[in-house]
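Chapter summary example.
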Amino acid sequence: MIENNELLEWANVYGNWYGVPKKEVKQALDKKQDTMVKVDIQGAATIKKILPRAIFIFLMPPSMEELFIRLKQRHTESPSDLALRLKTAEEEIEQLSLFDYIVVNRWDKIDQAVSGIKAIISAEKCRVTPREIAL
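The structure predicted for these 135 residues follows.
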């Protein structure tokens, strides 16, 4: 898909390849459907260059301490990988100016994060001058 230019953005993150298929995003945008993609900071920066009027939401933990606890409880990273994830998270938080909104994802309160995202979508639909987003 990379070689055929079929991805909106792609990256190797922690040894795994991730990408956003361009075709599906274009089809949804052409139909004026709400379209969400989950990407890291690099992905957001790439998409912002391609779709500068897109809406960017940064989903973040309430604190670095809580992020550390969450990651440690998952038992999916080695100590060195855990340290890298935390360092990366700190670097990503420094890039908040790239985003339009922040939603805090609190432990056991995913419903609040979902409500925050829904409120952003609702507010954007109420804009006097809507953002036209096309790929």
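To summarize the output: The longest helix spans residues 110-125.
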